[in-house]
Amino acid sequence: MSEQKKSDQKKLRVYIPATVPMLRELVTHRELTAIGGTAFAVTPALREAYASGDDEELGEVAMSEAARASLRLLAAERETMSGSESDPEPENPDEAAPGAGGGPVYRRAVIAADVTGATLRPDLDDAVVRLAGSISYQQIASVHVDLADAEPQVAKAVDVVDAADLGDPDAEFVLGDAEDHQLAWYAAQELPFLLELL
Predict the structure, then answer these.
(1) Which of 105, 85, 106 is nearest to 96 (CA)?
(2) DSSP label at 133?
(3) Second label for 121, Cα 20 to 30 Å away, from 44, 62, 186, 197?
(4) CA distance 85 to 82
(5) How many CB atoms lie within 10 A of CB 26?
(6) Is the dihedral of CA 7, 13, 14, 20 positive or negative?
């Protein structure tokens, strides 16, 4: 029985897609709830899909999936900042501009954390897991964020991520430009200092 409990409580390294405001929330509240509870991990389904990769390589695959999901979060963030389409009065062009009121920071962000109780969701995608709840600062293994030179390509990729998912070759090319940029690694304790610079 206790043996069973131990295996249920096994920690899993997950990669949580995020944005800079989400990182700020994490630092302020010392915890974060993933959007839709969604994260990515090295799952049995992912191992099956990449039979030849070791855990480190598969971790990179899961992280790149999370980084792509971060683009979708940026797209949603930008939409929220620039007002919904149903808003009847974006007559003032300044109000409608994405840069108005700060605008999103076009940097992908991924939080690597060790969690228990994550549920596999191979019905959504090979690497997708559903988290049991919010993650605390203590669970963070590392944080990965784009450097400033990636911002122009990330901003373009935000526009086309949905089209790329549908197989548009031009969109995939634009997305590839953004994904050529490697996310920089930060320890959890470095996060407040990083955010001060953004």
Answers:
(1) 85
(2) S
(3) 186
(4) 9
(5) 26
(6) positive
Phi, psi (rounded to 5 degrees) for 12: -125, 130
Alpha-helical runs (H) found in the chain: 2-8, 20-29, 44-49, 55-81, 93-96, 151-165, 169-179, 191-197
**Structure token digits, residue 194:** 């990083």
- What single-letter amino acid sits at 99? G
- Type of residue found at 61: V
Secondary structure string (H, E, C) spanning 114-143: EECCCEECCCCCCCEEECCCCEEHHHEEEE
Tens of pLDDT, residue by residue over 157-167, are: 999 988 988 88
CA–CA dist 39, 128 (Å, integer): 6
**pLDDT of the residue at 1:** 37
Task: Encode pLDDT of 85-130 as tens digits.
Answer: 444 443 433 333 333 345 789 999 999 999 999 999 988 899 999 9
Lowest mean pLDDT among 41-50, 78-87, 104-113: 78-87
